[in-house]
Write a structure and sequence with these properties.
- The protein contains 16 helices and 15 strands.
- The protein is 36% helix and 13% strand.
- The longest helix is centred in the C-terminal third of the chain and has 39 residues.
- It is α/β, with parallel strands linked by helices.
- The strands form 4 sheets. Strands 2-8-7-6-5-3-4 form a 7-stranded mixed beta sheet, with helices on both faces.
- The chain is globular.
- Strand 14 and strand 15 form a beta hairpin.
């Protein structure tokens, strides 16, 4: 690229050392040039013998211009596939002040607590939110994604069972209702650990001396909601542990796995305000019992005091870290998607417990209305109980429905020639619901009636408050402890720039000196001291 074409060369921004700094480093290692250093460090047998076949160089602005044109070729569909991925609304204040803020998106692991108090408090909020929703005793400050979190759960159960019982059972039962990507990752992780996976239906799980644990989904991959208490009791009676992959939003309305006796609860925090991002990865949550805290994969943020006696936050436990525990580390996946975990925590603070429950209730009601309207077209819904996902039967017409859905820029999860699942989300409104009904009506050659969503909701609500069995309705929703925004607007109070993220509603915990915590402060340092942006 000619110097006359542009001055914003990518290399100047992203290669940190200056020529003088480069020469100083080469002198320190005793190499005359970079090429000589590469000759010493990289064996000739693995080096490419010819120049790389690269296109002509571009400036940063030229590249972004071309990338924009390429991006416009994408077709944006409404996605109702589910399987752990749900469209969501990112509150504008979180988009602007967190996702697009280099003070949040450039930092690395908060090893220096003194300059990371804002991020540490947010991650503590994430942990509190997760323990409240899952009903567990302790949660880590996020993991890479849901599928690898399931693999970490499997490894934890294996380690815990061996250390407690002194035996080495090697069978892990996995429900065929788990997400397919979760099962794939479990297979990959189980093989080198010598663990035998048995993929079986939930009703087909048989516990014997060879089984150390079970992994199930709640609700399952096609949306069915089932009471897990009998299975968990059966597993514990035989000495096995149980991990549950849970939908975080659904836990605002249904009994959490922790109350059912689960030993580990994991899942994705994506639908708490994090964009789909072409499939992630998205921050995972991981919660367990206090007795397994030393086996916990991930970092644990704790509350302490500083030298002035004031409340302070720090990383209290990091047993996963290879540089600390080496071969005894509980995990070798360092990426925790902390930025996205912070977004999910901010989303929970922004809406508060009642707001989260309201979102969950609206999504569930839309699913019930959709079930009723599809029934008017002769479409059978197969899930006896569900939260947001319908499993519908259209004998021989699934492919026809899929084509009509694509014409309407909608994606469903087509399971086979007769069956489709439809997972609703926060972004769906009544117009979108009518579009879904219209797709089925067109595909089946029927004419939809006039859909009065308000009347349908009133009728369904009067008949039953939800589509859950009595034993799965959550009863403790208003005792949650995570912080709540002190203002219902996104405009910060004049005297306090971060007042929207204050923690004024935190319940006093045993041994704490205060029932409240300070407002979220921005990180003290940003990446502006160096020329490089890496």
């Amino acid at each position: 690229m000619s110097a006359l074409d542009a001055s914003d060369w990518f290399a100047r921004r992203h290669i940190g050392p200056s020529p003088d700094e480069r020469d100083e480093m080469l002198k320190a290692v005793g190499a005359p040039t970079l090429d000589a250093l590469m000759d010493e460090a990289i064996p000739p047998s693995i080096r490419l013998k010819k120049p790389l076949a690269l296109p002509a160089a571009e400036s940063e602005h030229q590249y972004l211009h071309r990338l924009g044109h390429l991006a416009h070729r994408n077709q944006v569909f409404k996605s109702y596939i589910g399987l752990g991925y749900h469209d969501t609304f990112t509150p504008s204040v979180i988009l602007r002040m967190v996702l697009e803020n280099p003070g949040w998106y450039t930092p690395y692991t908060p090893y220096q607590a003194e300059i990371a108090q804002g991020r540490l408090e947010s991650l503590l909020n994430f942990q509190t939110m997760v323990t409240d929703l899952t009903g567990m005793e302790v949660a880590s400050a996020s993991l890479l994604d849901e599928a690898t979190a399931a693999a970490e759960a499997m490894a934890l159960m294996h380690r815990a069972h061996t250390s407690q019982k002194g035996s080495e059972p090697n069978v892990c039962l996995v429900s065929d209702g788990c997400y397919p990507q979760t099962i794939d990752v479990l297979r990959s992780r189980a093989e080198p650990l010598g663990i035998e996976l048995r993929i079986v239906p939930l009703d087909g799980m048989a516990f014997d001396a060879s089984v150390f644990g079970a992994i199930v989904q709640y609700p399952d991959s096609v949306g069915e909601l089932r009471d897990l208490r009998p299975l968990i009791a059966n597993a514990h009676a035989s000495g096995a542990l149980v991990s549950v992959g849970a939908d975080l939003l659904s836990l605002a309305l249904i009994v959490p796995p922790g109350e059912m006796g689960a030993d580990v609860v994991y899942g994705s925090a994506q639908r708490f305000g994090v964009p789909l991002g072409y499939g992630g990865p998205h921050a995972a949550f991981f919660a367990t019992r206090n007795s397994f805290v030393r086996q916990l994969p991930g970092r644990l943020i704790g509350v302490s005091v500083d030298v002035h006696g004031k409340r302070a936050y720090r990383m209290a436990l990091a047993t996963r870290e290879q540089h600390i525990r080496r071969e005894k580390a509980t995990s070798n996946i360092c990426t925790a998607q902390a930025l996205l975990a912070n977004m999910a925590a901010m989303y929970a603070v922004y809406h508060g417990p009642k707001g989260i429950a309201a979102i969950a209730s609206r999504v569930h009601m839309l699913a019930r209305i959709l079930e009723r309207e599809l029934a008017e077209l002769g479409v059978t819904q197969l899930n006896p109980h569900y939260f947001d996902t319908l499993l519908v039967k259209v004998p021989g017409e699934a492919e026809h429905v899929r084509r009509r859905a694509e014409d309407a820029s909608i994606n469903f999860n087509v399971l086979d020639a007769d069956t489709i699942s439809i997972a609703l989300n926060e972004t769906l409104d009544t117009a979108g619901l009518r579009d879904i009904v219209g797709v089925f009506a067109t595909a089946l050659g029927k004419r939809p009636g006039v859909i009065d969503c308000e009347a349908a909701a009133a009728s369904l609500q009067s008949a039953s408050p939800d589509k859950f069995p009595t034993g799965l309705r959550r009863s403790d929703a208003w005792s949650w402890r995570w912080p709540t925004s002190s203002s219902r607007t996104s405009h910060p109070a004049p005297q306090r720039a971060s007042a929207w993220a204050t923690t004024s509603s935190r319940r006093k915990s045993p041994g704490s000196s205060s029932a409240t915590s300070p407002a979220m402060e921005p990180m003290g340092h940003t990446a502006t001291r160096r020329r490089t942006t890496c």
